[in-house]
Amino acid sequence: xTLIENNLTTYGLQIELTKSQNENFIRIQNHWYRFNNxxxxxxxxxNGANWEKYGITYKMDETxxxxxxxxxxxxxxxxxxxxxxxxxxxxxxxxxxxxxSTIKTTIHDIYxxxxxxxxxxxxPSSKAGFIHFEKYDFRFQWNKPxxxxxxxxxxxxxxE
Length: 160
Description:
Strand order of the largest sheet: 1-6-8-7-3-4-2-5
Strand content: 25-35%
Largest sheet: 8 strands, antiparallel
Distance between the termini: 18 Å
Number of strands: 8
Radius of gyration: 15 Å
Low-confidence stretches: none
Mean pLDDT: 90
Shape: globular
Order of helices and strands: EEHEEEEHHEE
């Protein structure tokens, strides 16, 4: 369990997801390309070893969305960027290692194998504001087998 001590405000671009995991993989991959181009265009590139980007999966009504985002940290963002806050709290962190084509297997394993066989109490997305988020940092190396991404699921620590 990991504690995030402060709310983290992020800004980015969202894309609507489908019910097809394979189609979503392609959509999200293309969306990251578009987002990174927007960061360059608006001079919002993060330089140095301490860069962070987030992929936030959330649901509004019955529709799923994916938001590519970066922390606010005093930057001015274009009007078409969406603000989303990752709330402070306790999270279970799962690590995906490998190229991007296998991340859907990692996510499937988390939700279909690990969680059902664990004592984790996941916070409902209606309360957390999202389902899970991916954190990309200096360890991310696109399609290299050594690439690492952390996947955070909000924990309900108030259950009885």
